[in-house]
Design brief:
By secondary structure, the chain is of the alpha+beta class. The chain has one domain. Helices cover about 20% and strands about 15% of the residues. It contains 2 helices and 5 strands, in the order βαββββα. The strands form 2 sheets. It has a 3-stranded antiparallel sheet with strand order 2-3-4. Strand 3 and strand 4 form a beta hairpin. It is globular and about 40 Å long. The C terminus is likely disordered.
């Protein structure tokens, strides 16, 4: 598992794009566009040339990602938070 501070820079292989896309769909906070949009959250989309904003009217691009985003992020989270769960359903609140 890469160290948390390690970075990867585009261009990215198709395998890297696929891994970053899986990360974006996971339970951790996704990479998001820092620009203001009408939507509450605008996720970045991984491409071979780096991240791009999911809002087609926005020109934001980012050429880096944390290397840990490529790995088994569930295992990485459990290493820090052993009680972490990754259920699709939110826990009921009283």
């Amino acid at each position: 598992m890469p160290e948390p501070s390690e970075m990867i820079f585009a261009p990215w292989s198709e395998e890297t794009v696929a891994a970053l896309s899986r990360y974006q769909d996971g339970p951790v906070h996704p990479y998001t566009c820092p620009n203001e949009h009408q939507q509450e959250e605008t996720r970045l989309v991984a491409t071979p040339n780096g991240w791009v904003c999911s809002d087609d009217s926005c020109a934001y691009a980012q050429n880096w990602a944390h290397a840990a985003s490529l790995g088994d992020w569930e295992a990485a989270i459990r290493a820090v938070l052993p009680s972490a769960t990754f259920d699709d359903k939110p826990e009921a609140t009283a």
